[in-house]
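Attaching the record inline, Q. Sequence:
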Amino acid sequence: MNGVLSIVLWLVILAVGGLLGFVARKTYAEKKVQSAEERAKLIIDEAEKKVQEKRKEVELESKELLHNIRADFEKETKDRRAELLNMEKRLIQREENLDKKVEVMDKKEKELTEKLKELSGKEQKLHSMEEEYKVMLAEEKDRLQRVSGLTAEEAKKLLLARMEEDVKQEAGLMIKKIEEETKQEADKKAREILATAIQRCAVEHTVESTVSVVNLPNDEMKGRIIGREGRNIRALEMATGIDVIIDDTPEAVILSGFDPVKREVARIALTRLMEDGRIHPGRIEEIVEKVKKEMEVSIKEAGEQAVFEVGIRNMHPELIKMLGKLKYRTSYGQNVLDHLKEAAFIMGTMANELGLDAQLAKRIGMLHDIGKAVSHEVEGAHPKLGAEMAKKYGENELVINAIEGHHGEIAPISIYTVLSSAADAVSGARPGARRETLETYIKRLEKLEEIADSFKGVDKAYAIQAGREVRVIVEPTKITDAQATVLSREIKKKIEEGMEYPGQIKITVIRETRAIEYAK
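Structure, as predicted:
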């Protein structure tokens, strides 16, 4: 019984405990719900406050944006209104100007109408006067015919004949005056062009020589050069084609030969043999062959350098090589390659002054003496040889004609041929270009004039173009045209017999009669 009561008591206690737990949990849950509701309410209140604040901010921003838009609109409207007012003012001003112009045009139109009326009246008056003049002219013609006894046609022919004679005389005087002025102007322009070309392009000359001197370290070297029984010197002469002269000159050997390239090969080879110390026929042939190959390269480089300095393009390699050879060739003391460069610059300058092709002119100047590169090997004059070379290597007809005709051997086909003659003469004949002192140069000119003056009938004689030409003016009453021809030949013979000079000298005998009057 006690056990049952204990169980019942425990069940009651458990039930009461469970009920109390349930009540406590319910109370806790209600408090939690209430707390959550209060928190939610607070969150909602805060959200509403933020929404209100955000709404106020948006409203303020909207009002500010609206205010700005309204201000911009008012400003733009104000600017447009001002612009329209300005345009209106300009249009009104233009309209006023047009009104004024219309008034001026109306006024001018009225004036023109009045002037036309006046001109019409004057025209009618002139027409009536012309009719009267025709009547009077016809009466005057009849009167003149009766007085002179000539018809109108005869009088016209006589008058025209006299007028023709007067016009011819005046035309002759005018033509003569124009010719003199043109000649003076042409001479002046030619002098200016030549002076400009010479000033820009003058090049120093080098000394012409057919020998080269090689200095020796001592006189004992002469014996080594000669060799046993002369085998070394013979081997050197055979390998180079140059005469080796060993005489009493202390510490020097002379190399003699007309070919400057071969002479230079011999000089370089001998210098290297002395530096090397091994002098025997085999070594001589080896060194000479090596120097010849180096000389070919040097010649090519010299030609290329010359062409580059002058500014010429597209020239055949063989012609460039021939130009390089001319570095070792001289003419009357003037280095031929330097002469060609100078002539090219002079021709280019003259061509520029005359409005011609300067590149073509330089090309002709550079090639005009190219024949001298082979003139000592091939028979013939250097202009002819040069023209054949230029034709062989594809130069055009103008270049070929200028090369062949620069000494006047053939007729020129273009002005470039004449320019090549002038450039060649300027470069070769100017004082200082060739090996001739100023004193000798002046004496040569004086001698030329003296020879020309020694003949009877000669009035004056002038040596010009640095002694390349002598102009002889004779007295027309003492020398006839036929005698002038004979006189030029006699002067030529006397110059050839009594003088030494480079190149050729042109003798020009001038015989003319001048009739001069002065109208006061």
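Residues 341 and 366 are 6 Å apart (CA to CA). The chain has 14 helices and eight strands.

More tomorrow.
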